[in-house]
């Protein structure tokens, strides 16, 4: 790594970056960001890496979920609390059914930038720069709002800091106490077709916990809180660079904007700026892989992103689509096995199953998401591999963006509460049902 430093990515072609009108203004903001306190610690990053290594061995299971793109307006107590609640509920179901420790990672406190398929968009004959997330510009279709503004990087840092502060406060004050899982209920869970199953799981876990503590004669203080990690797509490289730091008494550089940054499918070029940046940081890193990626390409990607073959360092997040995963995934799994490198495989069954309704509404079908996930478990097992986790776009709010689920949401029902600005998300009920489906799928094997 002697030729690497946090700015070396700037010598490579960088896709999906904002075109700021003033380099001087951008440089000034980067200087400010570079002097601000880190958002996470190197100890947390290293602890997560150890847990991801356990998931790769099949000893734990990773649950990663959250919004497709956070907005600055999402930094409110109810929205943050609901995101934590649904992830906690899902993890409770998975712990009960899989009998494994669950690693909870939220797409939260930094998911403010999004890749776009085009640099501009045209509406009624007017062409403006594309909206690239609140970290870059505004969603309003006006010339003023769409100009990339570096001051938004500071606003994003502030929102991420406030979100993380609230998450840590909730975790430490007993919000996640397993002695009182009834506190995790969202108000509308009682209306769900999954409610009875969920409450039975809660009851069973509570009885088991009280039995163990009675046997041991004392409460375990670790049960009163859970560790919650953060992740986001490391898309905006100037922002990531500014929060990359050297830490006393440790070697190398840590990205201290998040615990687990990942590389999106559009920017995973071997000679590109994102791979150059990610190859040098000490964090565990994720990368999206899928259809169109050759076996030799993936092997080289693994070599570059985990040159020292460090357990827990590299997370491969595969996304194909329900109709493509059977053809595409086995070859990639086998190719990585031939490298004899340590990786953690997790499934993103969301992105490959995006479609549009006849009226042009972007959606995903619950049955296709579940199908890809079920096939992925089977493929990894057949190849002698381990599928160690899942990656969902979801929300704890009562939205209607994905078709299907226990209530049979149809295309007409999407209109009731379709709120996403980018990709459709599983709502609270569909997410909980998905966790139960994972357990039932694995119990049947």
Automatic annotation (TrEMBL):
Keywords: Cadmium, Cobalt, Manganese, Transferase
Cofactor binding note: Binds 1 divalent cation per subunit. The enzyme is active with manganese, cobalt or cadmium ions.
Key word Transferase present: yes
Source organism superkingdom: Bacteria
Binding residues for phosphoenolpyruvate: 107, 288, 319
Residues that coordinate or bind Mn(2+): 68, 351, 393, 423
Cofactor requirements of the protein: Mn(2+); Co(2+); Cd(2+)
GO MF annotations, alphabetized: 3-deoxy-7-phosphoheptulonate synthase activity
Enzyme class: transferase
GO term, biological process aspect, one: aromatic amino acid family biosynthetic process
EC number, as in UniProt: 2.5.1.54
InterPro entries in the cross-refs: Aldolase_TIM, DAHP_synth_2
Coiled-coil portions: none
Catalysis: reaction(s): D-erythrose 4-phosphate + phosphoenolpyruvate + H2O = 7-phospho-2-dehydro-3-deoxy-D-arabino-heptonate + phosphate
Family: Belongs to the class-II DAHP synthase family.
NCBIfam families noted in UniProt: DAHP_synth_II
Protein name: Phospho-2-dehydro-3-deoxyheptonate aldolase
Lineage of the species this protein comes from: Bacteria, Pseudomonadati, Pseudomonadota, Gammaproteobacteria, sulfur-oxidizing symbionts
């Amino acid at each position: 790594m002697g030729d690497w430093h946090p700015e070396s990515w700037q010598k490579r072609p960088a896709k999906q970056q904002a075109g700021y009108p003033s380099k001087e203004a951008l440089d000034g903001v980067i200087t400010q960001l570079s002097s601000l306190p880190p958002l996470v610690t190197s100890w947390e990053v290293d602890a997560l890496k150890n847990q991801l290594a356990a998931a790769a061995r099949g000893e734990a299971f990773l649950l990663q979920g959250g919004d497709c793109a956070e907005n600055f307006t999402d930094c409110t107590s109810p929205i943050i609390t609901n995101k934590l609640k649904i992830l906690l509920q899902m993890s409770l179901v998975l712990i009960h059914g899989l009998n494994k420790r669950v690693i909870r990672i939220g797409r939260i406190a930094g998911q403010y930038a999004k890749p776009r398929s085009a640099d501009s968009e045209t509406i009624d004959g007017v062409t403006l720069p594309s909206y690239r997330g609140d970290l870059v510009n505004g969603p309003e279709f006006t010339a003023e709002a769409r100009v990339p503004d570096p001051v938004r990087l500071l606003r994003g840092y502030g929102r991420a800091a406030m979100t993380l502060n609230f998450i840590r406060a909730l975790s430490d004050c007993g919000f996640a106490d397993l002695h009182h899982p009834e506190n995790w209920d969202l108000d509308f869970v009682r209306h769900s077709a999954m409610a009875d199953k969920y409450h039975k799981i809660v009851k069973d876990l509570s009885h088991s916990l009280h039995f163990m503590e009675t046997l041991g004669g004392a409460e375990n203080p670790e049960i009163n809180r859970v560790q919650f990690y953060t992740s986001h797509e490391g898309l905006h490289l100037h922002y990531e660079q500014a929060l990359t730091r050297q830490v006393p008494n440790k070697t190398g550089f840590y990205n201290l904007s998040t615990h687990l940054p990942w590389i999106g499918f559009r920017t995973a070029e071997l000679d590109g700026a994102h791979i150059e940046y990610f190859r040098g940081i000490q964090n565990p890193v994720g990368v999206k892989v899928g259809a169109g990626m050759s076996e030799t390409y993936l092997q080289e990607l693994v070599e570059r992103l985990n040159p020292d073959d460090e357990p827990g360092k590299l997370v491969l997040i595969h996304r194909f689509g329900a109709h493509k995963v059977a053809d595409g995934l086995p070859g990639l799994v086998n190719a990585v096995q031939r490298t004899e490198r340590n990786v953690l495989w997790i499934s993103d069954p969301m992105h490959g199953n995006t479609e549009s309704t006849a009226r042009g509404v972007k959606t995903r079908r619950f049955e296709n998401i579940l199908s890809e996930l079920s096939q992925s478990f089977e493929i990894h097992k057949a190849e002698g591999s381990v599928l160690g986790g899942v990656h969902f776009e979801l929300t704890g709010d009562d939205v209607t963006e994905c078709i299907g689920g226990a209530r049979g949401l149809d295309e007409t029902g999407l209109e009731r509460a379709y709120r996403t600005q980018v990709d459709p998300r599983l709502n609270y009920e569909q997410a909980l049902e998905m966790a139960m489906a994972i357990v039932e799928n694995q119990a049947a094997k």
